Amino acid sequence: MTWFSTPADASDRLHEAGYLADATTATTSYLAGALEKPLLIEGPAGVGKTELAKAVARATGADLVRLQCYEGLDEARALYEWNYKKQLLRIQATSSQDDQDWAATHDDIFAEEFLLTRPLLTAIRRETPTVLLIDEVDKTDVEVEGLLLEVLSDFQVTIPELGTIEATRRPYVVLTSNASRELSEAVKRRCLYLHLDYPDAEREREIVASQVPDLDDKVTGQLVATIARLRELELKKAPSIAESVDWARTLVALEIGDLDDKAITDTLGVILKHSSDQARAVKELRLGR
Amino acid sequence: MTDPAAARSGLLDRHIAFLEALRGAGLSVSLAEDLDAVAALTSVEWTDRSIVHDVYAATLVKRQAQRPTFDALFDLYFPRLVGGGVAEAQRAETEGSEGDGSPVRDNAAALEAFREALAEALEQGDEQRLQELAAEMVGRFGAMPGRGPGLSSWSAYTALQRVAPSQLIERIVAALLGEGLTEEEAERSAGRRVGAFTATVEADARRRIAEEKGAEHVANVALRPSIDRIDFTSARKADLEEMRREIYPLARRLAARLTKEHHAKRRGPLDFRHTVRASMSTGGVPIATHHRPKRPHRTELVVLCDVSGSVANFAQFTLLLVFAMRESFQKVRAFTFIDHVHEVTHHFKPGADVVDVMSDLAASTAHAALWGRTNYGRALTKFVEEHSDAIGSKTSLLILGDARSNYSDLAADVLKEMAGTVRHAWWLNPEHRRHWGTGDSAAPAYGDIVDMVECRNLTQLAEFVHDLAL
User: Fold this and answer.
1) What was the pLDDT predicted at B40?
2) Per-residue CA distances from A55 to A12, A15, A58, A62 (Å)
3) B36: nearest CA in chain A?
4) Is the pLDDT of residue A69 over 60?
5) Counting beta carbons within 10 angstroms of the beta carbon of residue B77, is it exposed (0 to 12), middle (13 to 18) or buried (19 or more)?
6) Is A110 exposed, middle or buried (0-12, 13-18, 19+ CB in 10 A)?
7) Domain boundaries, chain A
8) Res. B110: pLDDT tops 90
């Protein structure tokens, strides 16, 4: 199966799945499918990195397998593990019968039945189209990156007791990163790279309108303009798309029909999460508290 | 791509030349990525230039900081149009009837007409039209005819001076006000549009020159390095702002890296007592060893910065970065000097706003100067006189400056004394190593007393701060 037939097709189908992709995102998503290469997405928090993976899954009717990375993630959590409790039970059960010798038991307990597959192995073994999302890959230790290399380049996993398991159907792999640390060259080399940034005003308007259809057109325009203005300031954390959408929802919930200075000041906490950022915004936008 | 026809068409040559240029500009493009790019290109249609651009970007550029360099090089090797394009040919047809034979007309009337068209396009914010106008502007007003083929050139500077788009700002503001924007918004977007247009004109001039002299030539001379490799001393205002935005992410990355590395060697010396006690449960066999937790070592830091004009930027960045990472240090105190010493620690409140801190720092520069001429000897002497309590056997001393002391007394023995008191002393010099000791630079003299480190750009600065905090 091909994931998308052309970049334009990728754009359309992602749109249908509720994700408004710009031309670069659509082209890169198409390439990741066409070349069967993993896609590494970087960008500030809340610009829709994880959402893109979910949208690809929705658009292509594939299932999503997600591996959330964190510090201390290891092979047993990412790849596979032997279910040793069950193995122990098995050994006890056979030794009481006395009619089976050790060699047979040994072969027995390292069988499929006792294997606990974790996300990476699950994604590789699936017969149906699968999107594998490896989220926040920058949070892991360097050792896990080494583990990913075999999976990402050859789509295979070697289990000493069972042999090498190859992907029957290559999953569509998406890695996301907040760039809190630089990934190794080896991982980057194997991936296509996409940097998602804050969208331009036009696209942001469409996104907010599609996510929060209840919001008045005029207010949406005001909201997008204010957000764009805030991003130009030197803030510790500029508001991202997720925050725009949250803000739009807040305005709907509070039934605010006009985004004037007072309304902005009252709801500033939704979009700016540092007190120094809020103080700067009040000063620069001349909100006059 | 082994098809001989493809090789003859020069497509592959151009592709390889482009990759060479990227490597020359500091991007690490491997052979595997090269092959990926070719494979990716064969899987898309080439009808749209932007698709080719995106394909190259996705397969070759794996670091966002390198993106501007990539974009500029792509414009050179795969230009948007050749020469003046179709538009110029059409213009030549309509204007050619006047019979002067020259395809482009350059006189006062043309300049006036052009400015009119430009103002209109800027008012409407029509990207496509602005692109065309930029190409026309360079071709018409920026041409510097040479004596022979290959000698003519194009100058964005001349074109911009003559057309002077910045003088159109007022007109654009007026037009935008008419559309119902507030004055502040109108001014901002007018400024942005003119700025974007200026950049377009500069890029177009580069494209024209590249056509004449070959892309390699322009790539070598006209491209700026990526933001983390720009020298502090040669950065432009826009670069400085961009660098300032980089400080916090950089500090966060450094802190994350430090925590990881601290974790990796967290195990302290063997705790014998605990190990023996624990071995009781296994019949006296010490199966698992226990270790004392390692006491986290944190450096107490005293930063002494030269804030005279020549190195002020460098000092500001270093101070910002050091204070952004204050959790990694026990205590940080900062002093600025020109020929007098002034403490600035209190400006760096936790969670303080970067812009405020910068303006406070700039305002406090006046306190650091008596006569305004850099004098390292005097500053060091004053520091020991007034703030000798700041340095002790636990502190690390960091001096920032270019060691250019206007041929005054160096007070080397004062520095020697300071270096003897503290745990370690470093001197960060923002000048290239080859300039040390030239002119009034006292770098070799001071370098004999304390370790002098070259620190010209963000990358070197980050590397140094990381090693310092470790």
Assistant:
1) 92
2) 12, 9, 5, 10
3) A35
4) yes
5) buried
6) middle
7) 7-71+118-195, 81-112, 201-278
8) no
Flag whether residue A52 sits within 8 Å of chain B, measured between CB atoms: no
Q: How confident is the model at residue A94 (pLDDT cuts 50, 70, 90)?
A: confident
Chain B: residue nearest A195 by CA?
A: B64
Q: CA B461 to CA B235: how far, in whole Å? A: 15
- Pairwise CB contact (< 8 Å): A24 & B54: yes
- The CA distance from B337 to B358, in Å, is 16
Q: For residues A195 and A40, give the distance between their C-alpha atoms in angstroms, rounded to a whole number.
A: 8
CATH ID of A7-71+118-195, from 3.90.550.10, 3.40.50.300, 2.60.40.3410, 3.40.50.20: 3.40.50.300
Q: Give the E-state strand segments of B130-233 in sequence order.
A: 143-144, 153-154
On whether any CB of chain B is under 8 Å from the CB of A182, the answer is: yes
pLDDT of residue B162: 82
Least confident of A51-60, B46-55, B127-136: B127-136
Which of the two residues, A25 and B133, has the higher pLDDT score? A25
d(CA B210, CA B218): 6
Q: Is the pLDDT of residue B81 over 60?
A: yes
- Residue length, chain B? 470
How far the first Cα of chain B sits from its last, in Å, is 49
Task: Report the pLDDT averaged over residues B193-204.
Answer: 85
CA angle (B450, B452, B454) in 5-degree steps: 170
pLDDT digits (tens, 9 = 90+) for A112-168: 888 999 999 999 888 999 999 999 998 887 788 888 888 888 888 888 888 888 888
From the list A27, A182, A277, the residue facing B54 with the nearest CB is A27
Which residues, other chains included, contact B87 with Cβ-Cβ below 8 Å and sequence gap of 6+?
B132, B135, B136
Which residues lie closer than 8 Å to B412 by C-beta, 6 or more apart? B445, B446, B449
Output the six-digit token pair for B322: 């050091």
How many Å apart are CA A130 and CA A170, to the nearest integer?
A: 8
Distance CA B396, CA B306 (A): 17
- CB nearest B54 (choices: A6, A23, A236): A23
CA angle A47, A130, A59 (to 5 degrees): 55
Q: What does the pLDDT average to over B249-256? A: 77
Q: How confident is the model over A76-103, as a mean pLDDT?
A: 79
Asked if the interface predicted TM-score (ipTM) of this complex is over 0.90, the answer is no
Least confident of A34-43, A248-257, B227-236: B227-236
